[in-house]
Amino acid sequence: MKRYKTLEEAQIALIELLEERGEFRGTIEELSEELSVKPEQVKLVVQVLKSSGNVITEEFDDHIIIKPASSIQVYLPPILTEEQKEEIERKVEEGYKVIACSTMGGVQSRELRSALGKRVIVYFRNGSRLEAKLKGFDRFCLKLRNYMGNILAYKHAISTIVYKP
User: Fold this and answer.
1) Which residue segment(s) compose the domain that 30 sits in?
2) DSSP letters along 53-82, please?
3) Poorest-confidence range of 19-33, 78-92, 102-116, 150-164?
4) Residue 26 is assigned to a structural domain of this protein
5) φ, ψ of residue 56 in degrees (nearest 5)
6) Nearest partner of 80 among 43, 48, 124, judged by Cα
7) Domain holding 138: CATH number?
8) pLDDT at residue 70 tops 70
């Protein structure tokens, strides 16, 4: 009996497929087969990613085109204080990895997925920093948790993220 993926696993699989190929063109059945989900769940997976702003879609009769929404990217140059730059350099020497934030990107998504559940240090554009556990993320924000509770940090306010792999 074939094991079908959960909706969360299917969302990640679709994002990885788009990062690898750039886009998907085909039928719902073909996408269902690629993602290892039931055909009736494909539209739900695509709708969730579309509503979160991660993908854009075009539908023609029985065919669908899915592209990453990275073409709608806003560039904000990172602003780090000299003290933060030095701290980041020390962290890299200690074996931490750096994630430079933008609104969306294949490398960023992959790095954030590998940092899920780990302690991260987030450096903000206003000069402040936050140390917390990364609980989740989408195209626009990060969900973090520390002693203060759950924190929602918007990516446009973030300069750099470091974490220990």
Assistant:
1) 7-70
2) TSEEEEEETTEEEEEEGGGS---------H
3) 102-116
4) yes
5) -120, 145
6) 124
7) 2.30.30.100
8) no
